[in-house]
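User: For my dataset I need records formatted as: sequence, then structure tokens, nothing else. Please produce one.
Assistant:
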Amino acid sequence: MSRFFRIQVDEAALTDELFSFVTDPHPSRNDRPVVDELHDVAPDVVDVLECMIIDGVDDRRFVADYVQSFVHELSA
């Protein structure tokens, strides 16, 4: 069966935004529009990002690897 809808993701822009979320030390990071959108599209992603915050992730490539992984899963 063919798919009727495709989700398009700008991986670079999403990675930048999520890296900013992960490295933002302020509680207001949860008010970012991307967080609201992720709660609608892929709610488990926010949980993983919060674990990255706890783990002290400060290297963009780890966020990029995760983004690539879940974007691939969404489009499968």
